[in-house]
Amino acid sequence: MEVKDINGNVLTVGMAVRYTGTGTTGEISAIKVEDGEGWVRLEDSDLWYNTGYLEVVDKSELRRAVRKGVAVTPLTASGR
Question: What is the DSSP string of 27-77?
């Protein structure tokens, strides 16, 4: 069974996608079918998403999303 996004695009490992519920983007690291539904795992989060809520995006959007991530303040030697 081919696994497709909400627009009918066939999904493959390595593609960039957006979860329409939250806007989360990521690169597909695995694909599976369970009970007739497609699921993909995103590389960074290691979470599984139902493909009925995903849309393929350009990888440049994936890179922009990563750059817009939360800034982390480095810890000092004291741990603060």
Answer: EEEEEEEETTEEEEEETTT--EEEGGGEEE--HHHHHHHHHTSPP-PPP-T
Asked if residue 70 has pLDDT above 90, the reply is no
So what's the pLDDT on residue 60?
Answer: 87
When pLDDT is averaged across residues 23-44 and rounded to a whole number, the result is 95
Q: What is the pLDDT of residue 73?
A: 44
Q: Which helix (H) or strand (E) holds 18?
A: strand 16-19
Do 38 and 1 form a contact (C-beta atoms < 8 A)? yes
Note whether 40 and 3 are within 8 A (CB): yes
